[in-house]
Amino acid sequence: xxxxxxxxxxxxxxxxxxxxxxxxxxxxxxxxxxxxxxxxxxxxxxxxxxxxxxxxxxxxxxxxxxxxxxxxxxxxxxxxxxxxxxxxxxxxxxxxxxxxxxxxxxxxxxxxxxxxxxxxxxxxxxxxxxxxxxxxxxxxxxxxxxxxxxxxxxxxxxxxxxxxxxxxxxxxxxxxxxxxxxxxxxxxxxxxxxxxxxxxxxxxxxxxxxxxxxxxxxxxxxxxxxxxxxxxxxxxxxxxxxxxxxxxxxxxxxxxxxxxxxxxxxxxxxxxxxxxxxxxxxxxxxxxxxxxxxxxxxxxxxxx
Amino acid sequence: xxxxxxxxxxxxxxxxxxxxxxxxxxxxxxxxxxxxxxxxxxxxxxxxxxxxxxxxxxxxxxxxxxxxxxxxxxxxxxxxxxxxxxxxxxxxxxxxxxxxxxxxxxxxxxxxxxxxxxxxxxxxxxxxxxxxxxxxxxxxxxxxxxxxxxxxxxxxxxxxxxxxxxxxxxxxxxxxxxxxxxxxxxxxxxxxxxxxxxxxxxxxxxxxxxxxxxxxxxxxxxxxxxxxxxxxxxxxxxxxxxxxxxxxxxxxxxxxxxxxxxxxxxxxxxxxxxxxxxxxxxxxxxxxxxxxxxxxxxxxxxxxxxxxxxxxxxxxxxxxxxxxxxxxxxxxxxxxxxxxxxxxxxxxxxxxxxxxxxxxxxxxxxxxxxxxxxxxxxxxxxxxxxxxxxxxxxxxxxxxx
Lengths: 304, 401
Description:
The complex is a heterodimer.
Chain A: H1 3-38, H2 45-66, H3 74-96, H4 105-126, E1 143-144, E2 152-153, H5 154-176, H6 178-188, H7 190-195, H8 200-222, H9 237-247, H10 252-272, H11 275-292
Helix pairs in contact in A: 1-5, 1-8, 1-9, 1-10, 2-3, 2-8, 3-8, 5-6, 5-8, 6-8, 9-10, 10-11
Chain B: H1 2-10, H2 13-30, H3 33-58, H4 66-85, H5 101-105, H6 121-145, H7 150-170, H8 172-175, E1 186-187, E2 190-191, H9 195-221, H10 223-233, H11 235-240, H12 245-271, H13 281-294, H14 299-319, H15 321-337, H16 342-367
Antiparallel strand pairs in B: 1-2
Helix pairs in contact in B: 2-9, 3-9, 3-12, 3-13, 3-14, 4-6, 4-12, 6-12, 9-10, 9-12, 13-14, 13-16, 14-15
């Protein structure tokens, strides 16, 4: 094996870690807003991702049958649709359920688990129990070969780019927009925020819905990597929670760092052992570190 | 006589007696052995639910990893039974006779050291209780010492559940993988699959469950129970009073884990197999809903909750499989939104006051002529005899999840 071969393998391995990082970050991002900022445990987060994934599938089906010529361009619009659908569902769920449970976080956990079961059965009844994958546009297929022996899959690059876009969007929105100001004020001191004229209930609802919308975008991005079934969202939920908790719940930057750390640990250890053992190792490491340092990597000082 | 009456009231033996009557007399007489065996299976979950009442209702700590302890207990029992089922004579067609079949399929030629303790029954039975407790201690000690609670504890226990499932499925040669341990036939040569054995196992299960409830009831009425409630409602005050809060929580968590382990062992005995599908995240959360439906503060209620939810599950997945998940979803949402205290709460708050006021009204009507003015609202605040006992925690304080 020559040196360039070794380098290619190293680069590709590094890229595998990077795309896992993008996946984890995209999953954790919506949760970081809902759980980190609002303190709501949304066990149905995975199902909001599934909503996003199914939106892409439906959009692909509709485009295919009505306007086949439009196929190369439908994907960005479908992502927007995924956001909108998940956003609306999140809005409704908050209005019906979550707003009554803000004072009882553990009950929120159980109630949203109920929501997730209900949504799963809705998917199964109305869309079908089989796993589906949308017809992807041509430009998302294949791989990019900068030089001999180095293959970088384009869908991985796409997910990476989308993650970068969404993450920076959320960071900017949280720190520069009026909504972000209201959210931060409400998180810091709800009563005071209320007193200064911020409608905290409306802020909560909007924040929850935006978090769900981002979950929808995450689900949309996953359709480029794997297929979607009624229960595929629930596979990710623990990982997503661990990413957010490990990073330090209230810190978005922490989420980014922890997603990176977890992804690299997982993909590097996968190189040396089987996939399931790598997962066990990664998760055990996270749990151990969380036991030693319960506030996560980047703790935001909050008066309790 | 007064002593008996007092202790009946103190330990709430009345409701327990009713439960024993139902489980030991009514159900065996009215159900055939197949259904009774199913009830026995549900009762094994009730062990977990009873443990959850202690940890969640009394300790205020929600664990989403009880399935792990159930699983460890179950696997400990199943490993013993599996070793007995795979003696060298019955497994002589294998390339290595005398080891469980799945090990042979995975090219393992020697019994792993992990399996050696499970050759003896007393050691296995001890491990059924001690292994879950040890893991519970390991998980909870560090966290409770660092004052991790509430949401974070729930997430971490959930992660532990995920780790255990992945580990069991991944280490197929040592654990049987996804299929788990199947073909468990005999316990020390006694065939557990016959009808009479099923009856015996059912009654053993009921007996152990009643003992566990009594043990938990005793803990609840002791000083420890009062402290647990105090910690749940105002942890810092208890800490400032000089108590080491974390140790009490660790104890309760280990108690619940041990109970779950017993449940798991009874499951392996009665059902005849054990698989990772009883360990993971989904079964662990379902076990929480058994407890929530019955009432998170009521030990007896938890048993009813486990029975009802599982019976519903069997009934609906037999006839309307599509409806079951919707019903389960409604159960999760309804219990948390409308009935946070579960069935026991409905009984305490709605049915009993109604019944009391009705009886009161009947008595008044019988004693007094109807012309006298109505008694001053006896229905509004019916005296609760159970509440006069100060150590009784029912209805004391507001529930904070």
